[in-house]
C-alpha cells in the first residue's frame, strides 16, 4: 500500500475526526472556532500535496495520482477552505448554528478528492456518493426553513436518479469491456453505446445539464447561500476533470459527440433564455450555472489537448467568480427581511458601493469582459473548438454567450441605475467573507492578466 499517494486524504480524514469529536463537547459559541479549524484542515491538505510523489498507484491500482490530479486537488482544497471560512457569520446571524457544517463540507471534500484520483468505476461511485449524501444534508441545513427542505428533497430525488444511471452505466461498461478500470476502448457496439448514454446522463444530473437540471433552481434558492457557493463550484469542478479523462478515452465513439453536443446546446440556449424570466437572483444564478454547464460540455466534445486545456482553465476561473458572487449574496441575506427578489437589489451600488461593485464585477466576469480571467477561458474554449474543427459548436457558443449578457446587465442596471430603500448601509462582511471575496477578486483579475500562472499547472 502506497500511503504517500493518500497523504492529502489522510490529512482530511484526521481533520474530520478531530472536528467531529470537538463538536460533540463544545457549545454553539465555538462554531466560529470549528469553522476556522475546518478551513485550516483544507490548508494543511493543500500543503501536503507538495509531499506527494507522483505518478503513483495504490489501492490495487484503483487510485491514481499524477500532476493533473494534484492540480485538481489543490483547486478543490482552496475552494473548500474559502467556502468554510465564509460561512460562519451567516449561520450566526441566522441563529442557525449547527456544528456539523464544517466537517460535513470536509467529508464532501474528501469524497471529491478521492473521486479525482479514482481509476475504477467502483471507487468513482463510492467517492461520489460520499460527497453527494453530505451535500444533500448541507442543502437542508436551515431546518426551520421550508424552502431549504423542499430544495434539498428535490436535489435528493434527482441525485438518486443520477446514482441509478451511474450504476447502470457502470454495469454496461463492465459488460462491454470486462473490467471496471478506466481503459481505452477501441470497439463500438450497442452495449458500449448504452454505457455512454447512461453514464453521461448520470454526470449530466450532477452538473445540472438540461434536461437533468430541474433540481438546480430550487436547491440554489432553498439551500443556505454559503452552502450554495460550495455546491455550485467544488462538485462541478471535479466532475469536469472526470469528463476530460473520459473524453480522452471514449470520444472516438460516435454517440459521444452526438450526446455531448445535444446536452450542451440544450443547456446553453434553454438556460440563457429562461434566466430572463427569473425574479429571484439566486434562481438567475442557478440558470447561469446551467448555461455555463453547456459551455463546459463543449470542451469534452472530442479528444483534443487544446480543447481540454481551455476547458479546465475556464472551469477553474469560473469557480472563483461563482463563489465570490454567492458570498456577496450571503452577506446581503444576513440583513433582516432581505429576499433575493431582483427588486431588492435596486440602489445597492448607491447605498453600499463595495457590495455593488463586487457583485457587478463577478457578473461582468460571467459575461467574459476582459481583462477578467473568464474572457481568457471563453477565448481558449472557442479556439479549442475551432482547432478541433467544431466550427458550428463554436458559433453556437458565441451566440449563447451574447444572449446571456442581457440578464447580467439587467441586474447591474438595477444595482446602479435604480433607486431603492436605504437598507444596505449596515451590511458588512465578516473577516472570513472579506478574505474569500479578496481571494476571488484578485484571482479572477490575476489569471486574466497572466493566464500562464494557472495554465502552466494544467498538463494533460
For the largest sheet, list the strands in their spatial order: 1-2
Helix content: over 70%
The chain-level mean pLDDT equals: 90
Can you write the helix and strand succession as a string? HHEEHHHHHHHHHHHHHHHHHH
Let me know the number of strands. Answer: 2
| Cα end-to-end separation | 26 Å
Q: Give the count of helical stretches.
A: 20
Find the structural class using helix and strand composition.
mainly alpha
**What is the CA-atom radius of gyration, in angstroms?**
21 Å
Question: How can the largest sheet be summarized?
Answer: 2 strands, antiparallel
Extract low-pLDDT stretches.
none
Beta-strand residue percentage: under 5%
What general outline do the C-alpha atoms trace? globular
Write down the domain tally: 1
Any chance you could write out the topology, listing elements then pairs?
Elements: H1 7-25, H2 31-48, E1 56-58, E2 63-65, H3 67-85, H4 88-93, H5 100-117, H6 121-139, H7 146-177, H8 190-206, H9 215-222, H10 225-231, H11 234-250, H12 254-275, H13 281-298, H14 305-333, H15 348-351, H16 353-367, H17 373-387, H18 391-417, H19 431-449, H20 452-455
Antiparallel strand pairs: 1-2
Helix pairs in contact: 1-2, 1-5, 2-3, 2-5, 3-5, 3-10, 3-11, 3-19, 5-6, 5-11, 6-7, 7-8, 7-9, 8-12, 9-13, 10-14, 11-14, 12-13, 12-18, 13-14, 13-18, 14-16, 14-17, 14-19, 16-18, 17-18, 17-19
Compact summary:
The two termini are 26 Å apart.
